Amino acid sequence: MWRRTPCFLNALTGGLSHHLFTCTEPGDVQFIDYEYSGYNYLAYDIGNHFNEFAGVSEVDYSLYPGRELQGQWLRSYLEAYKEYKGFGTEVTEKEVEILFIQVNQFALASHFFWGLWALIQAKYSTIDFDFLGYAVVRFNQYFKMKPEVTALKMPE
């Protein structure tokens, strides 16, 4: 039997959040702290994950993974997914390229979403955080990435 283990660092407050999950049996996960969870497209979640490489309180988008690292990560993801689904592990360059484009398109959506969220938080939140500054950072990155990402074309 596993103990309840705090395992989520809250980037806004700089401390541990409440218990994100507990494991009572190997392979058993119970989600507890899920206020920012929601159903979304796979490519959105991965794009948001890549955006978060830059951090929250001290954002540095030079840490956003480049095409090579994204390609390696996406290939590994697709291999694991296919193996889990019983489709083998062979992944084509075309599959990686399609997911790369989708992930980066949804990374734009993530910037826009969290920029809007931060504007709302700037008005209503009681948390001591520069939400307005964070909104500016997210919208700036959205407009910086947009021309390059929208120029990407799906392979034939």
Automatic annotation (TrEMBL):
What pathway does the UniProt record associate with this protein? Answer: Phospholipid metabolism; phosphatidylethanolamine biosynthesis; phosphatidylethanolamine from ethanolamine: step 1/3
Its signal peptide is: 1-17
Tell me the superkingdom of the source.
Answer: Eukaryota
Please provide, alphabetically and separated by semicolons, the GO molecular function terms listed in this UniProt record.
Answer: ethanolamine kinase activity
Q: Which GO terms describe its biological process?
A: phosphatidylethanolamine biosynthetic process
The enzyme class is transferase
Q: Which GO terms describe its cellular component?
A: cytoplasm
What keywords are assigned to this protein?
Lipid biosynthesis, Lipid metabolism, Phospholipid biosynthesis, Phospholipid metabolism, Signal
- Keyword Transport found: no
Q: Pfam families, from UniProt?
A: Choline_kinase
- State its Enzyme Commission number(s): 2.7.1.82
Q: Does the keyword Lipid biosynthesis apply?
A: yes
* InterPro entries, sorted: Kinase-like_dom_sf (IPR011009)
| Record-stated family | Belongs to the choline/ethanolamine kinase family.
Matching PANTHER family, A to Z? Answer: CHOLINE/ETHANOALAMINE KINASE, ETHANOLAMINE KINASE 1
Name assigned to this protein:
ethanolamine kinase
